[in-house]
TrEMBL record:
UniProt xrefs under InterPro entries: 6-PGluconate_DH-like_C_sf (IPR008927), NAD(P)-bd_dom_sf (IPR036291), P5C_Rdtase_cat_N (IPR028939), P5CR-like_CS (IPR053790), P5CR_dimer (IPR029036), Pyrroline-COOH_reductase (IPR000304)
Subcellular location: Cytoplasm
Catalyzed reactions: L-proline + NAD(+) = (S)-1-pyrroline-5-carboxylate + NADH + 2 H(+); L-proline + NADP(+) = (S)-1-pyrroline-5-carboxylate + NADPH + 2 H(+)
Protein name stated in the entry: Pyrroline-5-carboxylate reductase
GO molecular function, one term: pyrroline-5-carboxylate reductase activity
Family: Belongs to the pyrroline-5-carboxylate reductase family.
Keywords: Amino-acid biosynthesis, Cytoplasm, NADP, Oxidoreductase, Proline biosynthesis
Segments forming domain Pyrroline-5-carboxylate reductase catalytic N-terminal: 11-104
Main location: cytoplasm
Source organism, top-level taxon: Bacteria
All copies of domain Pyrroline-5-carboxylate reductase dimerisation, residue ranges: 167-271
Length: 276
């Protein structure tokens, strides 16, 4: 997908180019950002070499990224954020936009460690940005303007959908959307094991479940129907599906999912406190 990048004159740096940082970097390149306008930072030189070879982007130190980039996307682990901000603080001019993709880290946590008035935006993306089907949930910090939010949407909108929420909803959004893909992979893994139990070869079981997941996802997205209605259409009287649903209810799968997402939300809330 090649798009016109209105803000192409802007330089964007990804600081901490691991799994999500690389996914974003590759997505921005697919969306038409000139590599000359992108910078990446890493902690290890072998990782920097890998990124240069794979994408042709310049890799620099965190200080240099802070000096040269208009927008800094912070993609280190929440536990590394305090240290990174201590390192960056003196080098980030107050006219820069700082975007954090870290779970749990509040915009206030970042603002306190940067020059007064620096614009900060908090974003929770997810790994389907790798296939341009990401979801990025966006909240403004106290100095971020409509222009800063629009610029952030331009970056993340190139690799999927975006949604603005008040920052008070970010931990919940992280539980649903940031972590969300992992729950579906977990279900596919478990259902493939069930296929083995029922005597199917693993590859065939995998293909059947993945296609069921894709079909169900497209119907959920495109039909406009409530999931209950879609499930009822599969569930024939005295048939196979209701036998399975009874077992899911007997095993408390609905309650387990609610508890799981609540635990993810609570962990997100804890993470800003994990910086020392
Ligand atoms: N993975 C996901 O699905 C999602 C992750 N996130 C958030 O993204 C962030 C990163 O997660 P993820 O990509 O999974 O983790 P990774 O560990 O893959 O990426 C973090 C990267 O940051 C590097 N790093 C750490 N400190 C520095 C530093 N001071 N300077 C430069 N680079 C540094 C690490 O280097 P090294 O390799 O040497 O450790 C690592 O490559 C987290 O805050 C997470 O909450 C948000 C949404 C989804
Ligand atoms: O597991 C995590 O903490 C990160 C944040 C959302 C998805 N992965």
């Amino acid at each position: 997908m090649t798009q016109t990048v209105a803000a192409a004159a802007q330089t964007v740096a990804v600081l901490g180019t691991g799994k999500i940082g690389e996914a974003l970097l590759s997505g921005m390149i697919r969306a038409g950002w000139p590599t000359a306008r992108l910078l990446a930072t890493t902690r290890r030189t072998d990782r920097a070499e890998e990124l240069r070879a794979r994408y042709g982007v310049e890799t620099v130190t965190n200080d240099e990224a802070a000096k040269r980039a208009d927008t800094l996307i912070l993609a280190v682990k929440p536990q590394d954020m305090g240290r990174l901000l201590d390192e960056l603080g003196p080098h980030v001019a107050a006219d820069r936009l700082v975007v954090s993709a870290a779970a749990g880290i509040t915009t206030a946590f970042i603002e306190e460690r940067l020059a007064a008035g620096t614009a900060v935006v908090r974003v929770m993306p997810n790994t389907p940005v790798l296939v341009d089907e990401g979801m990025s949930v966006i909240s403004a910090g106290s100095h971020a303007t409509a222009g800063h939010l629009a610029h952030t949407e331009e970056i993340f909108g190139g690799v999927g959908k975006t949604l603005r929420v008040p920052e008070s909803q970010q931990d919940a959004a992280t539980a649903l959307s940031g972590s969300g893909p992992a729950y579906f992979y977990f279900l596919v893994e478990a259902m493939t094991d069930a296929g083995i139990l029922l005597g199917l070869p693993r590859a065939q079981a995998h293909d059947l479940i993945v296609q069921a997941a894709i079909g169900a996802a497209v119907m959920l997205r495109d039909s406009g129907e409530h999931p209950v209605k879609l499930r009822e259409a599969v569930t024939s009287p005295a048939g196979t599906t209701i036998s399975a649903i009874r077992e899911l209810e007997n095993h408390g799968v609905r309650a387990a999912l609610i508890a799981a997402l609540e635990a993810a939300r609570d962990r997100s809330r804890e993470l800003a406190g994990g910086n020392g």
